[in-house]
UniProtKB/TrEMBL annotation:
Identification of the protein by name: UDP-glucose 4-epimerase
Pathways per UniProt: Carbohydrate metabolism; galactose metabolism
Similarity section: Belongs to the NAD(P)-dependent epimerase/dehydratase family.
Cited SUPFAM superfamilies: NAD(P)-binding Rossmann-fold domains
Length: 349
């Protein structure tokens, strides 16, 4: 039996990961800071029977204690989302990067060499696109003048022509476009340096847009599925930004938990650092998500507002092949079923 420490194990995704590990027969310990950005209710004493230790990863002594007897660390703890404003910046870097650095140093001291890192598709920035004349291109951030005029599709940086969005694979160059994204890239780089120096194994799971039961309610840190779901619960129509044609890959949280379970097992045989898209492989537009949720919740139909957020990218569509080939991970929850369940599932308070 493997003893796994799950950081952030009382959060939305962490809770599902702990449950999947427990159900598969692993011994699990949970460390969670109960950060107010993710937890409005007090932390539970246990998650799926695993004890919850209230630990801020910046606390070196507490982290060292929590690692006693641990074989594998599954590092989910992070501040996520776009945040409120730049006053959030030190806290993002503190939680996500200093916290990871303290964890890595303590793991090295304790001789623990296996790590699964919760990363994110935000490390890519815009996804991959092709221009008919220039081949694969990485568009620059969209200009305010274009967004304000309703020109939402990024264009070729060389010739200004329309682009075709393609599948974004793990070797796509990283291009973080927000503070959160920058802290996730730093986590990837810190863990890669740690793996080289310790000879350890790190599997970085780049989650695409995760949704499902237990998602936090609408906050400045929430993803779009929680925002739409919260609006519908309050009897309001989901507000779809841009023209609703922006594409994402929505992956159910139970599938994300299964990917973590597969990754924990794979840390026993793989060495070095490796990234994986964790996605359904079936992209959808934000307009489709909104319409599906509104229908399933029997709520008002979505409103397409034409608003935009400067930090947003247009399309990110995952190439899901590597996780299938190397971890044996395939998402099983289809979007129609997932949406139907999610429309009535409880959110976190
Ligand atoms: C989201 C998460 C990010 C996470 C990533 C992968 C946030 C803010 N973003 O990135 O942390 O790493 O998934 O799991 O948590 N939109 C609307 N109406 C709204 C809100 C958003 O139409 O009320 C649109 C946005 O303009 C955007 C799309 O929905 O086009 C997705 O937004 P969001 O879920 O916030 O961000 P992602 O970039 O997909």
């Amino acid at each position: 039996m493997t003893h796994v420490l799950v950081t952030g194990g009382a959060g939305f995704i962490g809770t599902h990961v702990v449950t999947a590990l427990h159900d598969a027969g692993h011994q699990v310990t949970v460390a969670d800071a109960g950060h107010p950005g993710a937890h409005r209710a007090p932390l539970p004493d246990t998650v799926a029977g695993a004890p919850v230790h209230r630990i801020d990863l910046r606390d070196r002594a507490a982290v060292a204690d929590a690692l006693a007897g641990i074989d594998v660390v599954v590092h989910q703890a992070a501040m996520v989302g776009l945040g409120v404003d730049l006053d959030d910046l030190p806290e993002y870097v503190g939680c996500n990067d200093l916290g990871t650095a303290v964890l890595l140093a303590a793991m090295a001291r304790a001789g623990i060499h296996r790590l699964v890192l919760a990363s994110s598709m935000v490390v890519y920035g815009e996804g991959t696109y092709t221009c008919a004349r220039h081949g694969t291109v990485r568009p620059a951030p969209r200009a305010v003048t274009d967004l304000a005029a309703g020109r939402f599709e990024p264009v070729c940086t060389a010739c200004g022509a329309a682009l075709r969005p393609g599948l974004t694979g793990e070797d796509t160059p990283l291009d973080p476009r927000s503070v959160y994204a920058a802290t996730k890239v730093a986590q990837e780089h810190l863990t890669a340096a740690w793996a080289r120096q310790t000879g350890g194994t790190v599997l970085a799971l780049r989650y695409h847009n995760v949704y499902g039961p237990g998602m936090p309610r609408d906050t400045p840190y929430s993803g779009v599925a929680a925002i739409f779901r919260s609006a519908l619960e309050a009897g309001r129509a989901p507000r779809v930004f841009e023209d609703g044609g922006q594409r994402r890959d929505f992956v159910h949280v139970r599938d994300v938990a299964a990917a973590n379970l597969a990754a924990v097992t794979a840390t026993g045989t793989r060495t070095g650092w490796r990234a994986y898209n964790i996605a359904s492989g079936r992209p959808a537009t934000i307009g489709q998500l909104a319409a599906g949720l509104a229908r399933a919740a029997d709520g008002p139909p979505p409103v397409i507002t034409g608003e935009y957020r400067l930090g947003d990218v247009r399309h990110v569509v995952a190439a899901p092949g590597r996780a299938a080939a190397e971890l044996g991970f395939l998402a099983t929850v289809g979007l129609a079923d997932g949406i139907a369940q999610f429309a009535g599932a409880p959110l976190r308070g």
